[in-house]
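Example for tutorial group B:
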């Protein structure tokens, strides 16, 4: 198990290193010069003020989404539960966009964006809870109602666009998910938020493990299932809100990465929760590096210097394809 953690940590460092040299504006040789203490002022600014915080934000956001997804799947005992299909992510996007349109938040006030995203995520989760009822642990029922909730919240986001069309750029960034333009301010806001709620999720590992076994077993062990599930859902909403406020809605990360983490680290959440954090960090940072490399290749091929492939588009396409493969090979997959 220690070896698996070490391998994942090494992969995270490799992905971060690739991302530092993958972007446009600097050659890999110039990157090495800056890392060695050389380079001119412009090169140092690009690497140290733009690329490095972007890589750190990608690592942190991936960890948040993966842990949030594993917490949701464990609390609801639903392999289809994730921030994307439980109303949390679209609600967080709606909260952030609405607060920006009203002038209550913006890129110059990232803390207000986090708070607005958290409020929206709570509203989305509450709406799903009201629609699905207390029996919402059924995978098919939760998935159907999750689609409905996402559609409703997406429609409300579109209505905000009609009222404030000038916010189109911000809305697209949050809807697709991107790490473009992330600076140290985003990282300084994300890492304490992610650390605090990540520790809270790890402290809930014992109750969550009991909830995975069923409410009857949890009650027999003296655990208040309702209270534990409420705390877990609040933790998942906070982690999702932090990630959404930092990079937008990255599709399928919180849905599929938890399954990979459980397969690698086992069902004991004391190991699989930190394992999910590392796996999510590797997936998002690696996807962002691939997106930057693809953007460079597309720009050279199409002669379009401003062409940029957002990481959210890449994770959505790859995640959807992987989900189809998993469903076809294991249609009866449950916990």
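The residue assignment follows.
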């Amino acid at each position: 198990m220690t070896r698996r953690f070490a391998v994942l940590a090494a992969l995270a460092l490799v992905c971060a290193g690739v991302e530092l040299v993958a972007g446009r504006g600097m050659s890999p040789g110039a990157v090495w010069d800056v890392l060695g203490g050389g380079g001119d002022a412009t090169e140092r600014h690009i690497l140290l003020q733009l690329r490095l915080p972007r890589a750190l934000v990608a690592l942190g956001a991936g960890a948040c989404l993966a842990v949030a997804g594993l917490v949701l799947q464990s609390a609801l005992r639903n392999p289809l539960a994730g921030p994307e299909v439980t109303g949390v992510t679209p609600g967080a996007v709606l909260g952030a966009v609405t607060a920006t349109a009203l002038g209550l938040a913006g890129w110059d006030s990232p803390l207000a964006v986090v708070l607005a995203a958290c409020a929206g995520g709570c509203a989305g989760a509450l709406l799903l809870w009201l629609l699905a009822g207390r029996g919402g642990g059924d995978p098919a029922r939760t998935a159907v109602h999750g689609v409905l909730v996402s559609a409703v919240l997406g429609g409300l986001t579109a209505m905000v666009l009609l009222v404030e069309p000038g916010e189109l750029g911000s809305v697209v960034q949050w809807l697709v998910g991107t790490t473009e333009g992330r600076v140290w301010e985003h990282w300084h806001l994300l890492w304490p938020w992610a650390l605090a709620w990540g520790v809270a999720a790890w402290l809930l590992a014992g109750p969550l493990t009991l909830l995975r076994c069923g409410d009857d077993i949890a009650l027999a062990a003296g655990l208040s299932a309702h209270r534990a599930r409420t705390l877990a859902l609040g933790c998942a909403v906070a982690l999702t809100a932090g990630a959404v406020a930092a990079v937008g809605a990255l599709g399928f990360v919180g849905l599929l990465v938890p399954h990979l983490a459980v397969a690698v680290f086992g069902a004991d959440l004391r190991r699989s929760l930190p394992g999910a954090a590392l796996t999510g960090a590797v997936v998002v940072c690696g996807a962002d590096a691939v997106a930057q490399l693809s953007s460079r290749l597309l720009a050279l091929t199409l002669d379009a210097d401003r062409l940029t492939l957002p990481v959210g588009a890449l994770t959505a396409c790859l995640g959807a394809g992987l989900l189809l493969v998993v469903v076809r090979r294991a249609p009866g997959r449950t916990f």
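The chain has a mean pLDDT of 83. Compare this with the pattern of hydrophobic and polar residues in the output above.
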